[in-house]
Amino acid sequence: MTSYRFRVGAVNKFGISPYSWGSVEIRTKKTGTGGVDIDAETRKILLRSRQATSRPSPEPSPQASPDTTPLGSMEDLTAIADNKKDLGGLDREVHLQELDPETYLTFGSEVWRGRFTLVRNVKPKEGKKIKRVAKIIPYNYTKKEESLREFNMLKAVRQEHIVRLYEAYMHDNFVVLVLEKMYGENVARSLSLKNKYNEQQVSNIIKQVLDALQFLHHRGIVHLNVQPDNVVFQSRRRFDVKLIDFGRARHVTTYEGTERVEREGTAEFMAPEKVNREAVGVPADIWGVGTLAFILLSGMSPFRGLDDAETYANITHVRYDAHALYHNCTKYSLKFIYQVLKRRPKARLTTEECLEHKWLMLNAPLIKSRKAAQFPTDKLRMFEEDYIARRQAGTQISESLIKRFGEGFTYSSDEDEEDAAAAVRALKRHSRY
User: Fold this and answer.
1) Are strands 165-171 and 96-97 parallel, antiparallel or unpaired?
2) List of residues 6+ apart from 320 with CB closer than 8 A
3) What is the pLDDT of residues 245-297, one digit of tens each?
4) pTM given for the model
5) What is the pLDDT of residue 259?
6) Calpha distance 432→1 (Å, rounded)
7) Where are the domains of the chain?
8) Residue 181 and residue 267: Cα distance in Å, rounded?
């Protein structure tokens, strides 16, 4: 006989739940004992549970009260607490700490320089030396909401396709967000480095992005910055992507939104309502998904003009050339593009309708047809090089940020030196454009 105790947790598109308290001790039967007999009432209960169609609650279920749940020994409770620490505190919200991050973190090589921010590798000085990255954002006292926007959006978000925030510090007029480390490249660059890729891979990426957006929209958050740089592969070995960069995200109370936002960011990825300074809501993210899908299915940006003014006009009038898509794209991918790139927000598919679209369905004949649609990577590679050059050209990073955090390498192990060297090569590659 073997003894077990069980704790239950759930991971789905709505996030990660806390673990339950430990069950009472369960013992298996002796070897040779017959199978489990299920009575009629239990069989009915199991049947009803399989037939249930209601959507799960978006919020984690509250933990059971210690007064009503059998807890087991104090050792069990200690083990539960230790396990939660190992999991990074899945059931806790991250709080902004007004402390010097260098007291607790060892800063390593630079990973990226954005328009206003800097990203560096970091490791904790104590405990498990888990590799993470720190995104450093200048704090502006006259624009507190803007400076803390990404922190406020990510602090309570837990979803498999959204970057994870572990810690947050505010010190010396800088906000430092400690995020999980992404080991892959952005989706456009990653696919462009292959000899060829296929439509099934593109649909897989789009489905994961939509999963992340559905989670956000369910909580009243719109991302408003869906573009190749912000959809990154979690690993070089797996085809899992995560949505990053919540610096332009907003809370919304209605589907179409009530807030008008400025024309901030890369012009070709803005939705028409943002270009025309109208109320921006959930449909703006759907437009971003359509633009991303078009790029991956054609190797071209659908709305980019000779300058921003022409780009804005193309977006406002929804002027794009569907013939730019690869000739062997399936008819369902083309239909998806048509249904999400609509001028009127109400006319676009909803997030749920996108996820149920035939282009993303996982039945064998459709998967086979998508795998058969294979694309060359030369056009996508040219787009990516030009795209990165334009992104870097818009960098307005402050001198104070560079002086405070933009210098030095502190890692010493062979593995870390390899990471540092890779980061230097990436910076040189981007800077030469």
Assistant:
1) parallel
2) 294, 302, 303, 314, 341
3) 999 999 999 999 888 998 888 999 999 999 999 999 999 999 999 999 999 99
4) 0.75
5) 87
6) 67
7) 96-183+399-412, 187-389
8) 28
The class (CATH top level) of 96-183+399-412 is alpha beta
Helix axis angle, 414-431 to 378-393, nearest 10°: 90
- Which value, to the nearest 10 degrees, does the dihedral of the CA atoms of residues 354, 357, 362, 363 take? 170
Asked, colleague to colleague, whether 96-183+399-412 and 187-389 share their fold, the answer is no
Ramachandran area for residue 313 (φ above 0: left; ψ -120 to 50: alpha; else beta) = alpha
Q: Which option is the CATH number for 187-389: 2.102.10.10, 1.10.510.10, 1.10.940.10, 3.30.565.10? A: 1.10.510.10
* Pairwise CA distance, residues 359 & 337, whole Å: 10
Mean pLDDT over the full length of the chain: 82
What torsion do the CA atoms of 178, 184, 185, 187 make, to the nearest 10 degrees? -110
Q: What is the DSSP pairing of strand 374-376 with strand 174-180?
A: unpaired
Which position has the token pair 């891979």?
A: 201
The candidate with the shortest Cα–Cα distance to 431, out of 362, 369, 363, 385, is 385
User: What mean pLDDT is predicted for residues 162-188?
Assistant: 93
Q: How far is CA 263 from CA 223, 268, 273, 296, in A?
A: 14, 11, 10, 24
Q: Which token pair is 429?
A: 């590659």
With a CB cutoff of 8 Å and minimum separation 6, the contacts of 69 are 21
Of the CA atoms within 13 Å of residue 187, those in its CB half-sphere come to: 27
What distance in Å separates the CA atoms of residue 327 and residue 17, rounded to the nearest whole number? 44
CB-hemisphere CA count at 13 Å for 126? 4
Specify the pLDDT at position 127. Answer: 78
What band does 137 get if pLDDT is binned at 50, 70 and 90? very high
The DSSP-derived string for 375-415 is EESHHHHHHHHHHHHHHHHT----HHHHHHHS------SHH
* Rg, the chain, Cα only: 24
More reliable by pLDDT, 362 or 400? 362
Q: Whose CA is closest to 227, among 325, 302, 148, 120?
A: 302
